[in-house]
Design goal:
The protein has 584 residues and is mostly beta strands. It contains six helices and 33 strands. The strands form seven sheets. A six-stranded mixed sheet has the order 10-9-12-17-14-15, with no helix packed on it. Strands 11, 13, 16, 18, 19 and 20 form a six-stranded mixed sheet that branches. The longest helix has 20 residues. The N terminus is likely disordered.
């Protein structure tokens, strides 16, 4: 063992990291082979009539369900999901947060890892859950279809293990999916905005498990999602922000929540009255029915955290009901409402983010890169593009845009980026995404020069060597309007080693980085007019998009792609593409 430790300590961190991971995966595969299970599912994408807010609308669903089916697996299990597209739109399914080791063909974003599934066609997603436990989710990744096409993916511990929060055992586990609802076809909403260049209309309601709650017109208590609990019992709520364009505060009246995991990564338990989730993020919370056993009822409620000054947002509140059982009966008294933060309460959002720490235990260790080989600085924000010869619907006749390092990402149309990389196709993308802004400026100033407002539209990628240690500074800008950006990286979890407001200072800010137990996530909320620092090891070959999970922003181009090279042998390289991979 001493010789082994000396062997590890003599190697660079990235090599030691991969070796440790491979050892862990080998031990895992040896002990889990007997218990691992193959789960097969059929997803039928089709139009389904659904009544909400005084009207019936045809929405795209999976298997006629809204939200879609919840999938339950265990760490180490395999999933095989055949998607039949019976809808009128192109479609793909993304397995949000799943690492997809060597199975990038099943990640799902259209024109990044696959061409879309055309109407009347099908595609089978195949992948293994490797070393992940907790709450993830799946959703459409084609235009705005995910407004109604989404569902929970629950990853239970292996049969020979249990949850690390041994201080209590939850009686039940309940997915809580927060969503957005439009009284129009969401595809029509985004298509109109794209055509005119204006911002799309905000949603008409938020939802909890597909229901707006009884505070909305034509939505009664009988149409409100409810959870019943016995006094004294503890339940695990798996909260998912599946909203398209809104950060959300979530709270339960008269109950303290104990956070135990985020984005399928265990955290040190901490108590809070409010959870803030950006779109794409998940939070596992323990809730104990510790109020007087009088059969009272309590609202679970969510509403927007809107950080951008002057940016339109949905200011409504969605509710569900937590009710105590009184003997064999449920009391029907008026529910108690929680004290939700005000819409622009950045202090509360920041306090919640700062409370997150990885568990960093023997069974759930952390592997934070202590040094980096790729040190990248990416600005993220909005912009405006002129409309020559016409007047568009944005400010002063312009068109809204968004960018990273002033590059507004354009999806290819003739091939996916992963196919182009794998087969050596030319002309699909260029490998020159900049490591830094071409023209540094005061990113969070109140009056930024209009000469910096117009990004360049292009399909550029950043190529990473296999096993490279990577740090990305995500710097928000105040161009047009500064706001919080939930940045999601496909194919990877990363450590959030630092965050702050204003401009990132490379001389002083790294001294405050947490390299011991930083939270590990797949989606980071970059503070309004601030920055976040993330680190990861590029150990998963493929083409992985990093984008803002506000769908309005990715529509405008707030995205880029990492192309990660294959490793030194076949077991560390991307698998061959499946035979049924959709054609462009």
């Amino acid at each position: 063992m001493e010789a082994f430790n000396q062997h590890l300590s003599a190697q660079p961190f990235a090599a030691r990291f991969v070796e440790m991971v491979m050892i862990c995966l080998t031990l895992f595969s040896t002990t889990a082979m007997v218990s691992a299970k193959l789960h097969t599912h059929i997803f039928l994408l089709r139009s389904t009539p659904v009544k909400r807010l005084c009207g019936t609308h045809n929405i795209i669903t999976v298997n006629g369900q809204f939200p879609g089916p919840t999938l339950h697996v265990r760490n180490g299990d395999k999933l095989k999901v055949k998607v039949h597209n019976q809808a009128q739109y192109n479609a793909t399914i993304h397995w949000h947060g799943v690492r997809q080791f060597r199975t990038g063909w099943s990640d799902g974003p259209e024109f990044i890892t696959q061409c879309p599934i055309r109407p009347g066609r099908s595609y089978t997603y195949k992948f293994t859950i490797t070393g992940q436990e907790g709450t993830l989710w799946w959703h459409a990744h084609s235009s705005w279809l995910r407004a109604t096409v989404y569902g929970a993916l629950i990853i239970l511990p292996r049969l020979d293990t249990t949850y690390p929060f041994t201080f209590t055992r939850p009686h039940r586990q309940i997915p809580i999916l927060l969503g957005e609802w439009w009284n129009r076809n969401p595809m029509d909403v985004v298509n109109q905005a794209t055509r005119t260049g204006a911002a799309p209309n905000v949603s008409d309601a938020f939802t909890i498990n597909g229901q707006p709650g009884d505070l909305y017109k034509c939505s009664s208590t009988s149409d409100t999602f409810s959870v019943s609990m016995k006094a004294g019992e503890t339940n695990l709520l798996r909260v998912i922000n599946a909203a398209l364009n809104s950060d959300l505060f979530f709270s339960i009246a008269s109950h303290t929540m104990t956070v135990v995991a985020v984005d399928a990564s265990y955290t040190k338990p901490f108590q809070t009255n409010v959870v803030m989730l950006g779109p794409g993020q998940t939070t596992d919370i323990l809730v104990t029915a510790n109020q007087a056993a009088t059969g009272r009822r309590y609202y679970m409620a969510a509403r927007a955290y809107s950080s951008g000054q002057g940016v339109p947002f949905d200011n409504t509140t969605t509710t569900a009901i937590l009710e105590y059982e009184a003997g064999s009966q449920l009391n029907k008294s008026a529910p108690i409402m929680p004290n939700l933060p005000f819409y622009n309460d950045t202090n509360t959002a920041t306090s919640f983010a700062n409370g997150l720490r990885s568990l960093a235990s023997r069974d759930h260790p952390v592997f934070v890169p202590q040094s980096v080989q790729e040190n990248l600085f990416y600005t993220i924000g909005l912009g405006l593009i002129k409309c020559p010869g016409q007047s568009c619907g944005g400010p002063n006749g312009s068109r809204f845009a968004a960018s990273m390092n002033n590059i507004s990402f354009v999806l290819p149309t003739t091939s996916s980026i992963l196919q182009a990389q794998h087969f050596g196709m030319k002309g699909v993308f260029s490998a020159d995404f900049p490591d830094n802004p071409s023209a540094p400026f005061d990113y969070t100033a109140q009056n930024i020069s209009r000469g910096l407002w117009s990004p360049v539209k292009a399909t550029r990628v950043k190529v990473l060597k296999y096993n490279a240690t990577v740090q990305v500074i995500l710097q928000g800008t105040n161009i047009f309007a500064g706001e919080s950006h939930p940045i999601h990286l496909h194919g990877y979890d990363f450590y959030i080693v630092g965050a702050g407001f204003g401009n990132y200072n490379p001389q002083t800010d790294p001294h405050n980085f947490n390299l011991v137990d930083p939270p590990m996530r797949n989606t980071v909320n970059v503070p309004v007019n601030g920055w976040a620092a993330i680190r990861f090891v590029a150990d998963n070959p493929g083409a992985w998009v990093m984008h803002c999970h506000l769908d309005v922003h990715i529509t405008w181009g707030l995205a880029m792609v990492f192309v990660v090279n294959n490793g030194p042998d076949a077991l560390l390289s991307l698998q061959s593409p499946p035979r049924d991979l959709p054609l462009c």
